[in-house]
Specification:
The structure is a homodimer.
Chain A: H1 3-8, H2 18-27, E1 29-33, E2 38-40, E3 48-54, E4 57-62, E5 68-74, E6 79-80, E7 94-97, E8 101-107, H3 108-117, H4 120-145, H5 148-159, E9 172-173, H6 177-184, H7 188-200, E10 204-207, E11 210-213, H8 216-224
Antiparallel strand pairs in A: 1-8, 2-7, 3-6, 3-8, 4-5, 4-7, 9-11, 10-11
Chain lengths: 229, 229
């Protein structure tokens, strides 16, 4: 795989000069992870940040009694661990591979060097962080203020506003029902019931593991309605 | 009030040159807000970002049926609305003044101009966003995985790691019990019961509205324990 064009079309590389994209590409280290493999533990010192080339990564908080709350699921092109550009920050959550994944890692210091010549990369990182923060706030809202059907609709809508905070009309979700249930704080059974109902009303399309959002507006109505769906 | 020394000691101004601090100070517009006054609505286009001079601001998500989840409480020195440096982003949550507050506002464009001469301000903003994200993840964890006593302990610990992500040994919380209950998803009555118990065991000190954290380690044990406190 050629890293340069990958970075060029990535939110991280947006509007960067070719010379600085080369600096990034040359310093990137590719790493492979098996399904379930730990990428980083909560409170590890963050030394590198990550860009997903292929596969899927989850970021999560775990409780001492073994329960888990998924915070994010990152697919190809997504960036995480940006706090690595500071030498005194620790990773705020754990991350592991949901399936076989290939990641690019970049040392935090590299960004500093590039940024002092051209700050574009920092603007790109701020954009990524602002989107993460927005997703995080939406997750808090989902857990605190919404019932399960609203949560499902909200989660599906959030999934169509990923990478670079741009809205996509339709999106394919490839995560398992089990992972999705973990995010919205529901059981796989309840989740399946709600998904089937949404599919019957043509708001989504279900095909095995693949889930496709078809009607954002209708999902938006459910996500906002306080009446039971 | 002299804005320059205020900005100099603020996370936003960290390690910035005096010349650029002057640029910031000269462009700042001071605004006063009454208790309860709206500062910005969710989905408003973000044109300025804010630094709290005095008072207290809450950022929140509201549901159509009038329920509310507080996301953050910002006191003097804290920064919010950083997404204003991008012209295409909307504010991800509402913000209003919890008490009479004075805020400095800065146009997003200003940061771009300064950053192209010296990227320090962007590093400072990334640090602020990384801390917000960390707090946001902690709030998700709190709501999803913790019982009420654990939530209280976690919230108090989170409050000692504010501004600039630095840990403070003790911290004075000046928010009302009602606001605190709103953050942790509890009732003021239950919250008061837990706080009294913590005070009796000398983990915190209660004095009217003022709450002081005395023993971080003990709170940490409660926050992590899955046994009922």
């Amino acid at each position: 795989m050629n890293i340069l064009p990958f970075l060029q079309s990535n939110p991280l590389g947006r509007e960067m000069t070719k010379a600085h994209l080369w600096d990034l590409a040359n310093a990137a280290i590719k790493k492979n992870y098996r399904t379930g493999q730990t990428i980083i533990n909560e409170n590890d010192i963050a030394e590198v940040f990550y860009v997903v080339i292929s596969g899927m990564v989850k970021m999560f908080k775990a409780s001492p009694d073994g329960r888990e709350q998924t915070l994010y699921i990152f697919g190809p092109g997504e960036i995480f661990g940006v706090c690595a550009i500071f030498s005194d920050m620790v990773f705020p959550a754990g991350a592991s591979a949901l399936e076989e994944s290939v990641l690019l890692t970049f040392k935090g210091d590299l960004v500093k060097d590039i940024a002092h010549q051209d700050p574009t990369i920092l603007f790109n990182m701020i954009r990524v962080l602002a989107c993460r923060l927005k997703e995080s706030m939406a997750l808090v809202e989902l857990l605190a203020l919404k019932d399960i059907p609203q949560r499902v609709a909200s989660f599906l809508l959030m999934s169509t506003i990923k990478k670079d905070c741009r809205e996509e009309a339709a999106v394919d979700l490839m995560i398992t029902r089990r992972e999705m249930a973990k995010i919205i704080g529901s059981t796989p059974e309840t989740l399946s019931r709600v998904l089937k109902k949404l599919a019957m009303e043509n708001m989504i399309e279900l095909k095995g593991r693949r889930l496709r959002v078809l009607n954002r507006n209708a999902l938006n109505d459910i996500s906002r309605a306080s009446v039971m769906y």
